[in-house]
Amino acid sequence: TEGSGPWCHVDLLVENIDYTALTCSEKTALAPQAASMIASQLQVSQEVVLTPTGKPGSVAVFPGSYVAPWAPANRQPYTGKGTILSCVIASCSFHSVEQKFKQDPSVKEAILNTVKATTAGSPAVVYTAGKGPTAYFSIARGDQPSGQLPGPAMNDGCAQPTNNQPTINQQPTNIQPQTNQQPNNNQLTTAIQQPTKGMYTWILIGLAALALVSLVAGICCCLSRARSSEKQGFWDGPSDSDEGH
Q1: Distance between CA 135 and CA 37 in Å, rounded?
Q2: Contact in structure between 8 and 50 (CB atoms under 8 Å)
Q3: 33 touches 114 (CB < 8 A)
């Protein structure tokens, strides 16, 4: 397989593609599409374009603020809205790859157009002072991917949780059926007394409620008459100066 020999890191910072607004499906689609275009522009197989952790035929999608361990020592975190596409090229000549990206503007343009097409219509595409997505490249010498980033672990938030899987085929709790036991005399007496006590309780509650309703109705009637006289004297009735005329 292709992949032995020197390794090169290629990082693409895409300004005005907001990483935080990219969906998991957009990141999933963007990774192989960008790898395919990078391979096409370098005229190599897509399998020799790997993520920094060694996944062939794909690139890693990082926040724009991510500073990779292989980045130049003077690189500062990007503070704007951006996304970094990062890959490792196997069997590469560092100088030829560097010259390809630096001297041929069509290479950067082709890869940027792929990013734009993949994210077309996405809210992640923003415009700053009328300026849309813009690409900036960085090339660095690298080593063969070891399967794990040497720097802080990056999580794109798309991994599905594994500890919340629903439990299936649970056996229901055993419920022992009741046997047809004959109730004794004490049980029959209790069964008869309980409904009788309950009936008396509901009768008392009903009488109390009826008395309360009557009391409330009487109070409301009195209040209604008082309010009626106040309303008549305040809104509709003749003023004191009109009486006797």
Answers
A1: 14
A2: no
A3: yes
Angle ∠(77,83,84) on CA atoms, nearest 5: 75
Question: What's the full length of the chain, in residues?
Answer: 245
Residue 212: its H or E element: helix 185-231
List the one residue out of 186, 152, 149, 4 whose CA is nearest residue 65: 152
Cβ-Cβ contacts under 8 Å for 26 (sequence gap 6 or more): 118, 119, 122, 124
Q: Mind listing the pLDDT tens digit for each residue in 7-28?
A: 999 999 999 999 999 999 999 9
Element (H, E) at 97: helix 94-103
Question: Which DSSP symbol is given to 135?
Answer: E
Q: Do the beta carbons of residue 15 and residue 125 sit within 8 Å?
A: no
CA distance 69 to 66: 10
Answer for the pair 84, 64: CB distance below 8 angstroms, yes or no. Answer: yes
Residues in the chain where the model's pLDDT stays below 70? 1-5, 149-157, 159-200, 213-214, 216-245
Both tokens assigned to 76: 């500062």
pTM of the model: 0.62
Which of 106, 101, 104 is CA-nearest to residue 136? 101
DSSP designation for 139:
E
